Amino acid sequence: MKDYNEAETIRQLQTPQTQRKAFAEVVNRYSRPLYWQIRRMGPSHDDTNDLLQNTFIKAWSNLESFRSEARLSTWLYRIALNETLNFLNRQRAQQHLSIDDADASLANQLESDPYFDGDETQLRFEQAIRRLPEKQRMVFNLKYFQEMKYEEIADITGTSVGALKASYHLAVKKIEDFLMTTH
Amino acid sequence: MNEDKELLRKYGKKNPYRTPEGYFDDFAGKLMQQLPDTAAPCTGQTPERLRTIDRIKPWCYMAAMFAGLLFSFRWIVGDAGTADLPTERVDLVSDMEEEDLEPLMDRLLMDDYTLYQYLTEADADLLLHE
């Protein structure tokens, strides 16, 4: 893949003649990280695929609302995570589950997920992550797996850096506690 | 700072998930075919702009409902400012002894402490889910 120049891509996205080609480049660049971020929140592969498509369709139809001073990745992550949180809420409402039961249900689904290849240790680790409240899970995944800085996560979630640090600390503690009790 | 050091040591960052073969190779191509030619406004994705009449319609319905409720209430109860309570109901309350009234009031009202306890418990419940 050729070198990616975000400023140039944004300029092309704002020009009707070049926006389609530039958007294809954006899809190529961000489909993987967004897919994994959505997937780790809990949806199955098929649901993740739908959510990823919706993310890019929404981004395409709202290109005008993208402010060029913001980072493209921040904007896309925000759309993807909003879509995912809405999906999880809808799913919970349809199944008449409480928040705790929904998280536990997501954790249990992993064992029958045909696209999960982890061993016993990884299964327990992923189950512990899925038992976190949704927003805490989101912060944990962005920090732990995507290695994002708190400032970037703050831009995506609209939460203060201090609150994010507290949330991450709490998430790590909860995961360790879960792993300790299920050992 | 390194609060996740232990997790990293024990579990690392290996991705245990996978996708169907060739999923990412086809994704961009398939997605671009679904997109309309121009970026905005996207057909079917953004809601149509509401006409003014559609915008104020719910408020009109709500105002009519409240007016209806008010008139029904006045019709059933009568004019609250001038109407007297039926004599037998007034007598019933005024004839009651204070010791009979107190338990009744206790059951009807929530004192400050109970209210505080209720609110803090409700709050704690919310925080637990955060």
Protein described:
The complex is a heterodimer of chains A (183) and B (130). Helices cover 72% and strands 0% of the residues of chain A. Chain A has nine helices and no strands. Chain B is mostly helical and 130 residues long. The C terminus of chain B is likely disordered.
Q: Which spans of chain B have pLDDT < 50 for at least 5 consecutive residues?
A: 41-48, 122-130
Regions with little confidence, pLDDT below 50 for 5+ residues of chain A: none
- Report the structural category of chain B: mainly alpha
| Mean pLDDT over the full residue set of chain A | 90
Element order of chain A: H for helix, E for strand: HHHHHHHHH
Beta-strand portion of chain B reads under 5%
Looking at the overall shape, the CATH architecture of the largest domain in chain A is Orthogonal Bundle
Mean pLDDT of chain B: 69
Q: Quick one: CATH class of the largest domain in chain A? A: Mainly Alpha
